[in-house]
Amino acid sequence: MRRPLVAGNWKMNGDTESTISLVKGITDGRAEVTNAEVLICPPYILIPRAADALNGRDDISLGAQDLDINQNGAFTGQISASMLVDAGCKYVIVGHSERRAIYGESDQDVADKFKVAQQGGLTPVLCVGETLEERESGETEAVVARQIQAVIDVVGINQLDDAVIAYEPVWAIGTGKTATPEMAQEVHRFIRAMLAALNGDIAEKLRILYGGSMNAGNAESLISMTDIDGGLIGGASLQAESFLAICMAAN
Ligand code: PGA
Q1: Is 22 in the pocket of ligand 1 (CB under 6 A)?
Q2: Fewest CB atoms less than 10 Å from the CB: which of 15, 47, 120, 212?
Q3: Domain of 116: which CATH number?
Q4: How many domains does the chain have?
Q5: Which own/partner pairs from 86-89 qualify as long-range (CB within 8 Å, at least 24 positions apart)?
Q6: Which domain holds residue 183?
Q7: Is 230 in the pocket of ligand 1 (CB under 6 A)?
């Protein structure tokens, strides 16, 4: 059985005060979430604040939203895998559609980030997903396959053993439009079948999250689908109440 994972992607939101109160809210309700794994991904600068607020608790994992491919040195403004580990992170999101679209990250860049994340001891959460235009022209599977294949070409299928994939249709992110559970399940099943053709054990074990306007109201119907193993949550992860409701739905 795959253990469900609910990950909060805070994006560029929050400050010290809101981080402390959000972490407190989540830790207060965490005990009821008996099965699902809970992960929060604050902005870099708030990761140590969140770590302090967790105060040694390890039932809520910490992750980052991005990382640099270099280890250290003259890379102004960048943050490396070892820095994230040092700050208490276990996970890092790579290839979020906002990174791909706004900052021009290519499939190759994302694959390189996936590799250095693992080499640095972090579990990558690899985001994939099609734009509205790509969906409407019937390219959803081709796009998702291309994005995943780029990573496999760099690291090999066996490295998917320690990774998470998040299927996030770009048109559903932050728009309030969610894929129906059936639409999402279809792509999740496609991803698992693609991986199963290369390694059945890894495909069976790999957690595939859905992301894109998941909220307290729709989480249960999405996560109840066979191949949906949790969620990557943006907007609804900024309030303890809605984030915990999604954690309970995944539980
Ligand atoms: P959203 O964001 O839940 O606000 O749609 C999801 C994501 O971008 O990871």
Answers
A1: no
A2: 15
A3: 3.20.20.70
A4: 1
A5: 87/47, 87/48, 87/51, 87/62, 88/47, 88/48, 88/51, 88/54, 88/62, 89/47, 89/62, 89/63, 89/64, 89/122
A6: 5-249
A7: no
